[in-house]
Amino acid sequence: MKNSIGREIPDFIPGLGKVTGFGGAFARKPVGRTAGAALSTCLPRADKLLASIETAIDAVGLKDGMTISFHHHFRNGDRILNRVVEAIAKKGIRDITLSPSSLNTVNDALIPYIEQGVITAIETSGARGKMGRFLTEGHLKKPLHIRSHGGRAQAIESGAIHIDVAFLGAPACDRYGNINGIQGQSACGSLGYAIQDAAYADQVVAITDNLMPHPLFPISIPQTQVDYIVVVDSIGDPAGIASGALRYTKDPKELLIAKYAADVMDYSGYLQQDFSMQLGSGGASMAVGRFIKTKMLERGITGSFGVGGMTGVFAEMMEEGLFKMMFDVQSFDIPAIDSIKKNSNHLEMSASYYANPHNSGAIVNNLDAVILSATEVDVDFNVNVITDSNGVIMGASGGHCDTAAGAKLTIVVAPLLRGRLPMVKDAVHTVVTPGETVDAIVTERGIAINPKRLDIIDNVKNSGLPIMSIHELKDIAYKLCGKPEAIQLSDEIVGVVEYRDGTIIDVIRRPKF
Fold first, then answer.
1. What main location does UniProt list (predicted)?
2. At what angle do helices 312-319 and 334-342 cross, to 10 degrees?
3. Whole-structure pTM over 0.70, yes or no?
4. Domains annotated on the chain, with CATH
């Protein structure tokens, strides 16, 4: 079958079963009820503290075929996921479904456990490095299942993902299981993705390098959701968890793209008193914040809130009174972590509160504008952030399609060329965010507005900005470096990209390397 954006989606995919094709950003309505964790009990004066990860694996009764989850707030500093899988492998447990909120290059160490059959399925937001290529080559028994952050929350709450055991890295944890992410040597800030897992997993194991007296305060994950606690020497490398000082791009191309994006937002009419905004974590996306800040100061306006994975760019603006508050699902750098520690108006939020389309109102629905990056875009405004020019998995869905769907104005920033490759094409290799939810593509050589947004087109027509059609942008790119040759693909499906509502927006087929 072809889904609503013309992608060929099999009705049945081996390893996944029967699937439903994407029918539009808001076509699928939720049915049924939310799932729930297994009931548990803890008797008075019971001790949740266990001697080791191995002891915890025994205590939860982990066995072949179960699903385990992790959060990725430690990013490339994570010392939990690989260690737990290694312990599982040594116990001879096989056929595990791995369901982390995302994978990073540090998780390349898991490749041998896929080869051994310890891990046979992965459900996550994306993969990078050697792992990304390994999965693209089709070495996983079942296709990689990619979900956005909001889509993962939706899947957990609906029961599409059933987590048997969540292993949660806890920067601070007391002896009864209360957890936060802002204290200790491995502080990572918000625990927004872990909050979801703790609430819905049948059993939860907190792994900490900072055991504190009860009661811990503040509490991100309560003791009522934690079954066991293990103390280890280190759960994360601070150098890999977050970047240090605030880093602004100095790249002239990125700065020009950022300036254009800020100008589009300005002329669109959404840059006004009490507006809300999300910035991506890429160089150009973050730089937009500096140009927006200048415009706000010049006009004397302030914003209502910032949202998303937070960086020091937003923390700085909030502390200067330019935004009232921040909703943080993931703290990216030291300034953001410091901010959530000390500012009561810097709020931690769960992935469901952030972006789940099937609840009574995710915060992305209240966004005026979002600035997003892209690997490539096409003439239908579809966006790819998962695969590279060779069709290799190298990125993550993240909150891309979630915020694009929720915001009134979605601006995607990307260079027109990367090296000798066009980033605006006839068709992207893999669709993550559908063009119907994208309003503007901003490059250093020109800006394209989605033809459906007649209001924005009218507002920017006298702006002096280099406005052109998306086809003109593509033609410029092709004239500069030529039309790229099509990637030769096999029929083997090595990955599926699920839209935030649970439908399949695209599949990833193994390239013929």
1. cytoplasm
2. 40
3. yes
4. 47-241 (3.40.1080.10), 252-487 (3.40.1080.10)
